[in-house]
Each structure stands twice: as structure tokens, then as C-alpha cells.
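QA checklist item 7 of 12: single-chain prediction sanity check.
[x] sequence parsed
[x] length recorded as 488
[x] structure emitted
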Amino acid sequence: MKYSHRLTALALALLCLLPSMLSCGKKSGLSVDKEQALAHLEASAAAAEAKKDAVKKEQIAANKVIAEQAAAKPVEAKPPVEEIPLENPDEYAAPAKTAEVYDPAAEHRALKIFGAASSDGDYIAVYGECATGALVTVKNDQGTFTVQSFGGNFAARVKNPANAASLEVTQSYNGTQIGDAVTWQGNIIRPNYGNDWGVWLGGENQGFFHKMIPDFTHTNLLDQATLDSVRTRYATRVDALKTIGDGCEMIALLIPSAMTVYPELVPAEVAVPGEGESRFDQMVKVLTEAGVTVIDVRETFAAHKNDSLPLYYRYDSHWADYGSYLAYVELFDYISDRYPDASPRKFSEFTWEWGYYTGGDMPYYFDVDHGGLIYEHTYIRKMNFDLIPAVKALQRYNDPESLAYRSYSDEVVSGKTYNSGRDNLPDLYVYRNSYGASIYDLILERSDKITFNPTFSYTYNIAQIKKTVPDYVVYIMSEWDFGNIIDN
């Protein structure tokens, strides 16, 4: 609870007690003046508020002096992180993807349509279930549209400008139809969540947020004043961190959005990839110039986007466990140069459990599913080695059948520190958005002590960081959420 809120609550509590205070005063022969008590409470609250404002003004003035000093000092450009290849890179990656196979003897999933919602322009997103391995065909008066099953699920992008639809849906395998056609008639859902939370459907069942488009089209480039501000601010922080312990290093783990990794899934009617420098490129450059160690996983994700495990969920905007694992490998491959015992775990040290999981945010924002109706065929990562108690106690998901992270729960809260009791490993202070919820157990497993702060509710606080004496301050930030770095 914020300090001012605590004062208000205390004042209200004391006000509630005034009647009993007055009563007790009468019984004991004391005289209590209610107006005098109220005036005293108001004066105390005002004095405390004034003191808090004074402290805040002092902090702002001190930060301004530090920023001016940093601006006057030339920034020493730091070269990009040298990428040292893993000794056996195949041991840190999933095998190549293979095509789904339809097996009529084992298949029990019937063709089913859950609903249809407005996607982009004249197109709609049609969600349903089908046979594993099937090619789903949707016909209406606008034409024929197909999508390949993903584990017995499908999300088809269909042209349908009207407010209602009449769809004939069939499924086939190797050119042979499976079962009977299904007819679906109904109204098209018209969700209205704005550009931040509005969604649309691309190819191969992949959903996207509207807010990903400016990064994709390179129409949100930062102006020079903003770049200079970010450079100065982070150069100041890098210098301050060097005075902590044996020298604390700042690392920015920058995660591309699904659109950046899968441009081929973006229909030309929605957006065309931008040319030249992107905002992502700008962030890598300016943070590197400020002395931050930048780990940019775009190249790694591009190299592994056709592996057997997908990098991102189809029905959710977040990276899947395999994407977060690959980023973890890069992060701790770098850290292990200083802390050899922190080298990343191999792919085979984890169990990747495929199943049907609900909780994806895309069907929710399409208004097709607000109650666990639609399940995506995907996987979750589990550690198949002995766990230390601190890691074993963590729960990343709300329930065993949901992909919804516990990122907003008490599991990882602002300023909470976890200890694993292994001083041969590094101490970390991590700023993360909801993407970080998929990776924090991996980070703790390779750390001695770790403190988390969510970027959606934090203010950078060097005094708080100094208390934990970390070896690294790590930002885990997704591309469409770079504002948390730019503005904080």
C-alpha cells in the first residue's frame, strides 16, 4: 500500500474510533474535544504528506544533477556482445518439425465450430476443432479458405464482410474428405478493445495483437530527443551499478514479437514489413551505446522457428516455453563466462508435455471464449532433474490445464527476493513484464539470489537495487512493450 494511502487509512480508522474514545473519556472522567482531535489528525496527515513531497523533490533534484553530469560526460560505446557458439548447439534445441499424420483408428475429435469474430477489415476468425492432421476448408459466398490443423484445432481467416455468416466447413487428409460437412450459421462477434488489445488472425492459426503492427511496419521509430534521453538515462544507471559489490552489470534481454519472427504469416491486407531501421534496431543500438549488455534473440528465433516446438502460442500473445528456453540459453551462456556453474541446462534435461491447454488471451479478446471453451494443442516445460526447494515451490501456471501465467499473482511480486543458497551462482535483480513469468523458474534455478520487479508497476530505484547487491540487473522485455524501457 502506498504511503499516502496508509495515512488515509490510519486517519479513517482513528475517526472510526473517536466515538469510543469519547465514551471512554467520559467514563474515566477525561474530556476529549472531537473537533480538536480532528484538527490534530488533519495536521498530522498534512505534515506527513509535506515531508513525503519534500523527500520526493530532493530525489528528483538529485536525479537531475546525476543526469546532467552524465550528459556532460561522453558515453563510452560498448561493443555488441560477442556471440560465443555453444559447444554442442544441437543439445540446446528441439528437433525439426514433422507434418501431422491423420490416424482414423486413434482419432475421436469431431469437426466443431465454436464461433466467429471480426478480425481485420472484411475478414473474420473462425475457431473450431477437427481431426489431427486434417486440412480444414471453409466455404461461403466470398470464396474458399483453408487452414491446416494444429493438433486437432484450427483458427481460420475467412473473408466475410457481413454481420452474419453461413459457413460450410469440411476436413480432409491427402485429398480425401473426413466425415460429413458441417454447416455453421450465426452472428459475427464484433469485439472492441482498441488498438492495444484488439486482435486479428494471420496464417497457420496464428493470432496477433494490433499493437504489434507499428513495430512490424517500422512506423513507430523513436525521434532523436527520445534516443538521447534513453542513452543518457541508461548510461547513468550503468555507471551507478558498477559501484555495487564487485561491479553489477546491466543486461537487456530483448524479445521480438511473433510478427517479427513470422512475417510470412502476416496477410498483405493487414500490413507489409517495413524497410530499413526498426524501433527494435534503435533500442539495440542506443542501449549498447549506453553500456548495457544487449542480448537480441531475433536471429536465434529466426533459426529455430520451424523446430518441432513452436516459439509462440497460436492462441496467446506470449512466447511459449520453448521460446523462453532459447532466450534463457543465450542469457546464461553469456553469464556463465563469469559464473561457469550457471551454464544453461540442455534441452534433454526438461520434459516437454504436449496436451490441450486453455487460457490463451487471443480467443478472449476476440470475445469467442471467456470461460475455458477453447483449448490449444501445445506443451508446457517441466524440469526432469532434482530441484532445490526454492524452485520446487514456484508455480508458473494457474492450474494444470491452463496457459495463464501467475505473473499478476503473489507468486512473483514487486521486490520479492528468492534465495537458492548457492553462492557459486550469480545474484540477479530482474525487471520483467508478463513474458518474464515463463522464464523465472529457469533464472532462479541458475541463480543464488534473485529479486523480481514487474515493469508494469515499477519505478527504477537504485537504492532498492543496492540493498540486494546483485551481480546483474536484467531487463526481460518484449518488443511491443519497449515503452517500459523508453519511459522508465
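[x] summary fact logged: DSSP finds 14 helices and 18 strands in the chain.
[ ] second reviewer sign-off
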